[in-house]
Design brief:
mainly beta, 8-stranded antiparallel β-barrel
């Protein structure tokens, strides 16, 4: 076989593959995952299926997966092969489409798994992405009681949630406290892990937008407390 004929056949094969797989190519957000009867939908999970036979995936702005994909047009099966993550032991997904959604289905450990994906234009933001930044305390309540003035009488408290998973607090006394922060992968919950060994970790439920942050205590030590913040673009004096 001549080199020219070989290259021609490769091009034809590539174009045929792309044409048959055109429907799955694009940026998709995973809107729902069910395993058996249980919903296990991750937050802001996306996958970008590229025309060159590769894909990348992540949660929010954090990419955590990449690999290659292959689509069998006859069987309507999609196989993803990781290059940086763990080997997928469960094989190909059966692919179908309904109401502008792509649906992946397969069996894992005897349970039916269904993944519903929706095509999107931009990578979705997760609570971890929107929570990053500098936040100034606006109000604090404990149950029905407003404790803003007693908790932070001189309006000194702020928290800086950094991209490198470190947080920095200025306490109501004006001291600097630091630690690690971790966002739950399936729920909008943040855990603050102080560097100070004398302080205990605390978890909070997160509600946020680009300009507001609300932390509601869910640990034994902070249950019932609600802190509301506004975003700052520079450190206060």
């Amino acid at each position: 076989m001549s080199q020219l004929l070989y290259r021609t056949l490769l091009i034809v094969l590539l174009l045929t593959t792309l044409f048959s797989a055109q429907g799955i190519i694009g940026l998709w957000e995973i809107k729902n995952v069910t395993v058996g009867e249980e919903s296990m939908t991750p937050i802001a999970k996306w996958t970008n299926i590229k025309p060159d036979g590769t894909y990348t995936s992540g949660n929010g702005w954090l990419q955590n997966s990449q690999g290659t994909w292959n689509y069998d047009e006859d069987k309507k099966e999609l196989t993803n092969t990781e290059t940086i993550g763990l080997i997928d032991e469960f094989g190909a997904f059966n692919v179908s489409f309904a109401d502008d959604n792509m649906i992946w289905e397969r069996v894992e450990e005897g349970m039916n798994v269904t993944v519903i994906l929706q095509k999107i234009e931009t990578i979705p933001q997760a609570p971890a992405d929107m929570s990053q930044g500098l936040w100034d305390l606006v109000s604090a309540t404990d149950g029905e009681k407003d404790i803003t003035n007693s908790f932070d009488p001189e309006n000194k408290y702020y928290i800086f949630i950094r991209w490198d998973r470190i947080y920095v607090e200025r306490t109501p006394e004006g001291n600097r406290e630091t630690g690690y922060w971790h966002m739950h992968g399936h729920r909008p919950e943040i855990t603050l892990l102080p560097h100070n060994p004398d302080k205990q970790p605390e978890s909070w439920r997160v509600e946020n937008s680009m300009s507001k942050l609300v932390l509601t205590g869910i640990s034994d030590s902070n249950k019932g407390k609600v802190y509301k913040f506004k975003r700052l673009n520079q450190f206060p004096e």
